[in-house]
Amino acid sequence: MKVACVGGGPAGLYLSILLKRDDPDHDITVYERGPEGSTYGWGVTYWRPLLDRLHRHDPESARAVEEHSVTWRDGVAHVGDLSVRHRGDTGHGIGRHRLLEILAARARALGVRLEYGHEVTAPGELPAADLVVAADGVGSALRTRHAGHFGTAARPGRNRYLWLGTTKVFDAFTFAFVPTAHGWIWAYGYGFGPGHSTCVVECAPETWRGLGLDGADEGEGLVLLEKLFADVLDGHPLVARPATGAGVLPWQPFRTLTNRVWSHGNLVLLGDAAHTTHYSVGAGTTLALEDAMSLAAALRGRPAVPDALARYAAERRAALLPVQSAARYSARFYEHLPRYLALPPEQMFALLGQRHSPLLPYLPPRLYYRLDRAAGRLEPLRRVKRRLGPKLARAAQTRALTRGGG
């Protein structure tokens, strides 16, 4: 089979690896518009179940990913002057640049052609292929050309966010919530290498404007944020990605992207071109890699391409439902953050861990906290929570789909 994969991110590269492992006779080319090594972004997060799946699908690349990742177990929340630390599940971080290096090297070793600096905006610009994969990200040009067919919808969230790096190496997944005269501003920080961490900053639009971040240039904005988060940065700087354009920080609302249909003829959507989930659930890279696993499995054994694409789309759409629901509730938690910040830090941190719950928005926070603690001790309450939560989630998902999601 001849495959043209547009987009050299984790989804496209990993798909090419899996297809070549399944059949070395596949003729696969990955087209990436940027020069090799030019990717921006800081670290990405993932959890042990993904690493186990990577080891099952391609042990060689999985070993390299694990070797170059950092690991944490604790979560820390700083709320104003108060702090609390909890032990949680094991998490991992790896630099996006390093992840792409690993996957590109593995793809080349298997015989995949990688063409960097080659932008593709339409399938007609490619040589004839049995399968064209749109793995070109949330702004996918291939998908946009057929947006009506795919039923593409993008819903912006309310808050503004900013993706930064720092030389402060966090030893835990760190949350910092800072009060200001214009409302709360907060950051999520996690390490991804021996000398760097990711730091995502978020706030409500009125706080963003009130602090003057909407009009500040890059230097002024970074200085202000460094002052606000000085207690957790310990004197380390915040760093913006290069080439932000007009010298301003790229604040934006998160856009949740969905598609009603995932294929058009022999063109199929993969990764962020097909779907996005709010960054606060830390699932973007995991979902992209799982898309690649699913599509490779559907194509295994040389079935008819339309049948394989239908199977892939059905499988992944079903798998995404709980993640999309969790992401919506997580985003909603942060959009209504003042509702929870009046709690003692231990209770606030406990509800932070429950932010994916479809019950949380409908109960007073203190009542939810007490019920959740009681549910941990009483089986009847656990059963009620297990029954009612999914029903609310399904109802919310149905409402979202009727508004054009997918």
Describe this structure in words.
Helix 1 packs parallel to helix 10 (284-299). The strands form two sheets. Strands 3, 4, 5, 8, 9, 10, 11, 12 and 13 form a nine-stranded mixed sheet that branches. Strands 6-2-1-7-15-14 form a six-stranded mixed sheet. Helix content is 42%, strand content 25%. The protein has 15 helices and 15 strands. Mean pLDDT is 91; it is low at 400-406.
Describe the biggest sheet?
A: 9 strands, mixed
Count every helix, treating DSSP H or I runs of 4 or more residues as helices. Answer: 15
Given as residue ranges, the uncertain stretches (5+ residues, pLDDT < 50) are: 400-406
Question: In total, how many beta strands?
Answer: 15
For the termini, the CA-CA separation is 29 Å
Q: Provide the β-strand percentage band.
A: 25-35%
Helix and strand element order:
EHEEHHEEHEEHHEEEEHHHEEEEHHHHHH
Helix percentage: 40-55%
Mean pLDDT: 91
Backbone structural class: alpha/beta
The global form is globular
Q: Report Rg.
A: 22 Å
How would you summarize what this structure contains?
The protein has helices at 10-22, 48-57, 59-67, 96-110, 141-144, 147-150, 205-210, 218-228, 230-233, 284-299, 305-335, 338-341, 345-352, 365-375, 379-402; strands spanning 2-6, 27-32, 43-47, 70-79, 82-95, 113-116, 131-134, 153-166, 173-180, 183-193, 196-203, 238-239, 252-258, 263-264, 267-269. With 406 residues, it is an alpha/beta fold. The longest helix has 31 residues, at 305-335.
